[in-house]
Specification:
Low-confidence stretches: 1-21
Number of domains: 3
CATH superfamily of the largest domain: Ribonuclease Inhibitor
Pfam families: LRR_8
Shape: rod-shaped
InterPro entries: Leu-rich_rpt (IPR001611), Leu-rich_rpt_typical-subtyp (IPR003591), LRR_dom_sf (IPR032675), LRR_TM_domain-containing (IPR050541)
Order of helices and strands: HHEEEEHEEEEEHHEEEHEEHEHHHH
Number of strands: 15
Organism: Timema tahoe
Helix content: 10-25%
Strand order of the largest sheet: 1-2-3-5-7-8-9
CATH topology of the largest domain: Leucine-rich repeat, LRR (right-handed beta-alpha superhelix)
Protein name: Protein singed wings 2
Keywords: Leucine-rich repeat, Repeat, Signal
CATH architecture of the largest domain: Alpha-Beta Horseshoe
Mean pLDDT: 87
Radius of gyration: 40 Å
Distance between the termini: 140 Å
Structural class: alpha/beta
Length: 463
């Protein structure tokens, strides 16, 4: 195997390391570089063989005495462990480094004496789950400084003496890394063998530069608290994690989605630090958990679209109303709102961003609508679906389906001439007439007494 012309300069760029180990490998490998020719140096005392650019003719057939094999500047992008390691049956240590290798063609063969595998400084992007499964006596596995984005628990041999090194890879935490979180079980014993575990960070979004063990601990906690048991077959997602102000711990940002499950009530338990709750397209009418359930105290966004909510009066003066960020009540059965209480809460709420109230059967009359109309105008920037906040359909009412914001006061509150006389109005008229009659009679009797000296007839009959 020969190193192609033009590749050497590219491979030499890999020599610059960020650790003492990589620098040592670089020095060892450079001592054997000879242009595009495969060269090897054997040290009899250490029984070590270092080759650059592939195996030269002298060692291409293998050697039983070699215990430590180092391959540098491998000339192709794939590597076959079976083809190479079977040539050196006495190997204790194997190193492949400073090479453009991005894939293993085969798993490592059974090599009983092999204790150290160092494959750092390559371009490996994926490994099979069984790549190292036949290495029964492996003590050290070094996969640092590759392009690996994930590693499954099954990839790591379950050896009590195994030490694994994984830093320097662009790990994607969108995959299942929960085994790396210490929980005291079998996964904890495997995780503890990852020597540089505390230095591993997520490189992809949304947890970029966050420590993987801390992120995965939050994922495990969220999964344990997620309301998944029937009837709450909800799904929970860790959308992001942010450092607290002291940068001592991570704060999770969690979304719980319980939409379209036919629920008749809100979940009784939510993961700690739940930020958003989606319960759309259910049959929920009771909002009391927002008032008396501690799990809802810090939920910032609640989406209750397409439910059976008829009133939000229960939320008056509740702590949640003073701290929410998004509240969506589209397509429910709301006809009125306690506008004064809601106005008071919004005046003090520094977090509110969006409110959605459209597609509800709003009552349009002179008692409720003027104050509600004022509310919509005042919070026009918050009520994002103002155009869909419309009067309910009433047969014969010209205001049916008209946006409440656009109604004139005269169309809501009809002039007195258009009022229909009610029985109470008749009673009030009769009472007023009697009062006038009594006052008039009293005035007449007083005038008659002054003029003639006669007292009213009823006075003469009094004892």
């Amino acid at each position: 195997m020969q190193l192609r012309e033009g590749d050497l300069n590219v491979l030499m760029a890999l020599v610059v390391g960020t650790t003492a180990t990589r620098a040592r490998h670089s020095e060892t490998c450079l001592s054997t570089v000879n242009g595009s020719v495969a060269t090897c140096e054997y040290t009899p005392g250490a029984k070590s063989l270092v080759c650059s650019g592939g195996l030269n003719r002298k060692f291409s057939a293998g050697n039983f005495r070699v215990r430590a094999l180092t391959l540098c500047f491998w000339p192709v992008s794939t590597f076959d462990p079976t083809m190479v390691l079977t040539l050196f049956p006495s190997l204790h240590e194997f190193t492949l480094t400073l090479s453009p290798v991005d894939r293993l063609e085969e798993d490592f063969p059974e090599t009983p004496r092999l204790k150290v595998v160092n494959m750092s400084g390559l371009s490996l992007s994926r490994l099979s789950d069984t790549a190292f499964s036949r290495l029964k006596n492996l003590n050290v596995l070094d996969l640092r400084f590759n392009n690996l984005t994930e590693i499954h628990l099954d990839m790591l041999p379950d050896h009590s003496s195994l030490h694994v090194y994984l830093t320097g890879n662009p790990w994607s935490c969108s995959r299942d890394w929960t085994w790396l979180a210490d929980d005291g079980g079998r996964t904890s014993s495997v995780a503890s063998r990852v020597v540089d575990r505390d230095k591993l960070t997520c490189q992809g979004q949304p947890y970029r530069e966050k420590p993987i063990p801390l992120v995965m601990a939050l994922v495990k906690s969220m999964q344990a608290e997620c309301p998944r048991q029937p009837p709450f077959n909800c799904s929970c997602t860790l959308d992001n994690v942010v450092w607290d102000t002291s940068r001592l711990y991570l704060v999770p940002i969690i979304t719980v989605d319980c939409s379209g499950l036919g629920l008749t009530e809100l979940p009784g338990v939510l993961p700690s630090n739940t930020t958003s709750l989606l319960v759309k397209e259910n049959q929920i009418s009771d909002l009391r958990p927002l008032v008396n359930n501690e799990h809802y105290r810090h939920v910032a966004d609640i989406f209750l679209d397409d439910n059976l909510v008829e009133s939000v009066a229960v939320l008056e003066s509740s702590p949640w109303l003073f701290n929410f960020r998004v509240f969506s009540l589209r397509s429910n059965r709301l006809s009125q709102l306690p506008t004064y209480a809601l106005d008071n809460a919004l005046e003090r709420n520094r977090h509110v961003v969006d409110i959605f109230l459209g597609n509800n059967p709003w009552q349009c009359d002179c008692l409720f609508t003027p104050s509600f109309q004022d509310f919509l105008v005042k919070y026009f920037t918050l009520v994002k679906d103002n155009d869909n906040v419309r009067c309910a359909f009433v047969d014969g009412d010209e205001n049916s389906f008209v946006p409440i914001r656009d109604l004139s006061r005269s169309s809501i509150c009809a002039p007195p001439s258009e009022y229909i006389i009610q029985p109470l109005d008749l009673l009030n008229g009769v009472l007023a007439s009697l009062i006038i009659l009594v006052v008039g009679k009293l005035g007449y009797d007083y005038w008659n007494f002054k003029k003639t000296g006669k007292v009213p007839w009823i006075v003469t009959k009094m004892p």
